[in-house]
Design brief:
Layout lengths: L2 H27 L8 H27 L1 E2 L4 H6 L14 E4 L2 E5 L6 E3 L7
Antiparallel strand pairs: 1-2, 2-3, 3-4
The structure holds zinc ion.
The site of zinc ion has 8 residues, from loops.
């Protein structure tokens, strides 16, 4: 990931957090009845903040993808949770520090929950 992208993501996160904080304040202030518009502005700001963070996360997910290198002895012990077929090294990918398993036998796609020691 390039440095300019990191800066862009950083600014995006700050803006999103600020939007959500303001939105929450507006929602908390709304029941006081000072301004009925707060009931509309609050959720819009909260929503905008969530959309920005989701957008950034999706962009980062594409960038972070990498290939896993497993020791053959460890692969031998790993089996598909769905069909119990033995899995090979090419069935594993890491996305955002989450190990994704795609079984070549039954096509099952799932995350690895019990973290093996690489
Ligand atoms: Zn399978």
């Amino acid at each position: 990931m390039s440095k300019s992208q990191n800066v862009f993501f950083g600014i995006g996160y700050c803006a999103a957090i600020a939007l959500m904080a303001l939105g929450a304040i507006f929602l908390m202030a709304a029941p006081a009845g000072t301004n009925p518009g707060f009931y509309i502005t609050g959720p819009i700001m909260l929503g905008a903040g969530v959309v920005i963070i989701v957008g950034i996360r999706l962009r980062q997910r594409v960038v972070v993808e990498q290939k896993v290198t497993l020791k053959p002895t460890q692969i031998r012990e790993l089996k598909c949770k769905n069909c119990h077929a033995s899995l090979s090294e090419k069935d594993f990918t890491i996305k955002n520090d989450i190990v994704i398993v795609k079984c070549t036998y039954c096509g099952a796609l799932y995350e690895m929950t019990d973290n093996p020691v690489w």
